[in-house]
Amino acid sequence: MPFWGSTSNKLTGLAELGYKFFTPKKHTITLSASGKRFSYAKKNNKFLTYSRLSPSVTIDFWKRPLSQFTQSLSIRHLFINQQNLLQDTIERISIKSRLSNSTEISYWGSIKNGYTPTTFRVCIENYRYQVFETRQNFLKTTFELTQSYQYRENRHITARLFVGGFPINSGRNAGFGFTRGFLGLSARGFADYRYDDFYFGRNEQKGILSQQISSNTEGGLKFALPEGEETRIGYSNNFVSSLNLKTQLPFKLPLDIKPYFDVGYFSDTRPGGERTTSQWLMSGGLSWELNDYFGIYVPLYFSGKKDDPNSFHSIMTRRNGFLSRITFNLNLRKLDLRRLLDNLSGE
Q1: Has residue 24 been placed in a domain?
Q2: Burial 175-207 (b: 16+ CB within 10 A, else e)
Q3: Most confident of the ranges 131-135, 247-251, 252-256
Q4: Residue 114 and residue 150 in contact, taking contact as beta carbons nearer than 8 Å
């Protein structure tokens, strides 16, 4: 699907091919290859682009007719070509492309129980990239568990647990400006190093586009730090964990507004720099979601003391005005045509 960037005047777009077949043991195997090319930043009046090619294989294991358990195994490889600015001389700046590679193995399972449906995902990723002339790599492991509990008819409480860390990370003690090996309690465009999600303002630091998050990615906290402090807290080259809670109210409202509460921990191993008072972050508020496609999150609480300039509360309230602290999620990956056709066909 080709596009033309109205601002960058560059050809962009995405495409995907897939082939599905069944094994003698009734497992479903899907071979696919996808590609995309978009601009991700504007620096020195130059639009920088990324290109990504991703071949993958997914095995959906056969389940017994009365079984409530579904499982799949997926292996994908990413080839990412990203343009960067290079200062050749004092007066000359050129664009140089760098290639990075990622191999990811993930195992997914789902238990469709009427009262407590549960899903989980275990993932291992090996990522290889280059900073200046130095080769870097990391091995990242993540675990995600989501469970919903029906406390009364058509009323649910949902809990999501996330744990992630780096058994190996050559940039464990580096600053975030020089490494891609980090996890975030809040998922935003600048941290999406694999270019999995779609952001209207991937590297925006202010304005409404800087308030876009991915609410079901990594830590799942629903905050966007103010300009100049995007990676100050909530991101780690070592380890993060979080718990996300949301519930439907006992009574129905026209928009089905849900209270939410998040708590997260991040291990900060960066050398030097100003730290936040606590590595435990908590926030809560009200949300409105349209399935997993779109969501609006209105924060009412941030942890920390108001009179402590390094607390989570003080850092977040430095965003100019209450409206600038509201975040939104737009999951365009859910609009994948192939997956929608599969769902309609019941596969």
Answers
A1: no
A2: ebeebbbbbbbbbbbbbbbbbebbbebbbbeee
A3: 247-251
A4: yes
Beta strands at 212-213 and 327-330: parallel, antiparallel or unpaired: parallel
Q: What is the pLDDT of residue 100?
A: 93
Residue labelled with tokens 């209450």: 322
* CA-angle at 145, arms to 144 and 150, nearest 5°: 150
Does any domain span residue 46? no
Half-sphere exposure of 13 (CA within 13 A, CB side): 7
* Number of Cβ atoms within 10 Å of the Cβ of 119: 16
Domain that residue 269 falls in: 113-345
**Contact assessment for residue 63 and residue 33, using Cβ atoms and an 8 Å cutoff:** no
Global pTM reads 0.89
Buried b / exposed e over 50-67, threshold 16 CB at 10 Å, is bbbebebebbbeeeeeee
Q: Report yes or no on 310 lying in a domain.
A: yes
Query: Are 149 and 157 in contact, with CB atoms under 8 Å apart?
Result: yes
- Residue 254: pLDDT band by 50, 70, 90 thresholds? confident
The radius of gyration computed from the CA coordinates of the chain, to the nearest angstrom, equals 21
> What's the number of domains the chain is made of?
1
208 in a structural domain: yes
